[in-house]
Amino acid sequence: MGLPRTLVNINGYADGEGYLGVISEFEQPKLALATEDWRGGGMIGSVKLDKGLEPMEATVTLGGHEKSLIRKFGTTSVEGVRLRLVAAYRADDGSAAQAVEIYIGGRFTEIDMGKDKPGDQTEHKYTAPLNYYRRVVDGRTEVEIDMIQGMFMVNGIDRHAEIMAILTG
């Protein structure tokens, strides 16, 4: 019998500045293949053909007003904002906690500053379409995607290396 590993706590960093005690939520990007239906002659049904990756998007929510992040809005570079999220996951079965680091790169396309009311919590939500994503678990890179450089690593295997070798060879 096993128990699920659940998030115990999280911290975020942008340009070396930490947000411990300020970061309240991180919505991770959905990893999805872009596919297209194909049914050729003689087939009794369609199959999904791999057409690359779907766009990725992440959202980070911070309590309060963070001018350093607001100042990153409107950058002209698709790689304008680099964030590192550090999370601790643990199962209540006595096993060791697991370190998960997520590195993302993109630019903020939306900052939702929500509602402000004296005495109430204030949260700002930053949304970024991503061109870069890396997930490291206990020091080992599990997934790394670089949309611009054409890298798609999963479990140490670059699933796009053969194509890039043809293009750059």
What does this structure look like?
The chain has 169 residues and is mainly beta. It has one domain (6-36, 46-168): Pnp Oxidase, Chain A (Roll). The protein is 7% helix and 51% strand. It has helices spanning 67-70, 161-168, and strands at residues 6-14, 17-18, 23-27, 33-38, 47-53, 56-63, 81-90, 98-106, 110-112, 123-137, 140-146, 151-154, 157-158. The strands form two sheets. Strands 1, 2, 3, 6, 7, 8, 9, 10, 11, 12 and 13 form an eleven-stranded antiparallel sheet that branches. The chain is globular and about 70 Å long. The model has no long low-confidence stretch (mean pLDDT 94).
Structure keywords:
single chain, 169 residues, mainly beta, Pnp Oxidase, Chain A, eleven-stranded antiparallel beta sheet, two-stranded antiparallel sheet, 2 helices, 7% helix
- The tally of structural domains comes to 1
CATH second-level architecture = Roll
Strand pairing plus helix content: what structural class?
mainly beta
CATH class: Mainly Beta
Residue fraction in strands: over 45%
Distance between the termini: 50 Å
What does the largest sheet look like?
Answer: 11 strands, antiparallel
Mean pLDDT: 94
Number of helices: 2
Task: Give the helix/strand layout.
Elements: E1 6-14, E2 17-18, E3 23-27, E4 33-38, E5 47-53, E6 56-63, H1 67-70, E7 81-90, E8 98-106, E9 110-112, E10 123-137, E11 140-146, E12 151-154, E13 157-158, H2 161-168
Antiparallel strand pairs: 1-2, 1-7, 3-6, 4-5, 6-10, 7-8, 8-10, 9-10, 10-11, 11-12, 12-13
Summarize the structure.
By secondary structure, the protein is mostly beta strands.
